[in-house]
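Sharing a chain and its predicted structure for anyone who wants a worked example. Both blocks are below, sequence first, tokens second.
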Amino acid sequence: MMTQKRSAIWHWFLDGKIAPANLKTAMLEAYPHPDANKWQQLIANILLYLGVLLLSAGVIFFMAFNWDALSHLNKFAIVEATFALFIGGFYLTNRAQEKQYLQPDIQHDQHHWRAQHNQHIQQTYGRSLANAMLLGASIMLGALLALVGQTYQTGADPWQLFAIWAVLILPFAYIAGFDLLWLLMVVLLNVSLGLYLQSFASVFSFLLEDIQQIALFGLVNLVIHLLFTLAKRWQWRGQLHFHCPMVEATSLLASLSAFTWLIVWIIFDFSYDSNEQVIYYALLYLAILTSLFVWYRYRSPSLYPLTLVLTSISTAIVSLLSRELLDSHDPIGGFFLIAMVVIGLTSGSLYWLKQLQKEFAQTATLNSEEAAHE
């Protein structure tokens, strides 16, 4: 958003709509420099989440270091007491926020109260003290599950621990609508899937080969990305719970990394004459990247996904060229040509992305002007 505002003001300046003496003032008006209160709020948030993470990690490491010295009752008491403190902290802080923002002040008008109400909604789903308490409770919930498994030797596989952990913190993530909680759940799902495939590799080896597991990881993370993207775009009651740009970016990065690994594997390790699966994997790769390119180029313009798509395509091109050239009798010339291709692809991608940035900024400016006229 900041880049779009600054780009729009710069284009107005180039068109002569803003005088040179007023350019700096317009830039500061669109996006002012953070004042002391914003810096204090940023530092307070960093210290808050760092403190919650260190406290949770401290309890876990304390339990592991003193495992033999503590009785079963003491172990459960420490973990459950910490979990209860986090839950109690969430309840008290959330209740205090509701009293602060939802009660109208008689000294202010109705418009000011609505602004406070909107601010309360924005702070409910995102970075807040209450959601930090839920993050600590989610971590301690996983520690409690691990403690139960170690104490009573339930015989469960490691993937079950992470899968149950992810399911149990799903209500916390939905209530908070917080990036870190959703990201924790996504990481747990990926770890659970990886451990599941590793645990049953001997049983399902005839069904899922290594390359198929890579494709499965890519599809799972792509589905997660699509779910959060669509849930944020739809107009429904739970829309604010899924406004998590960090999860969208991370899941898309994981998905395209898996598919890039898949196509590189195909290029270097598979024989094109003897293996028919190469065609299906290559078509899957091309179909997914083409769909992402069309969607984020025309339907929902965004530079980050297009950057990932271009990076993946460039990696595939360089890998294909490397396979053909490094098998030749002149490896030095092959390395030189590969270096030139890398420089050309990088420069071309950066130039095209820069042009797209200007186009997206102009589109955003036109949309804002149309909305202002309406």
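Comments welcome. The mean pLDDT is 80.
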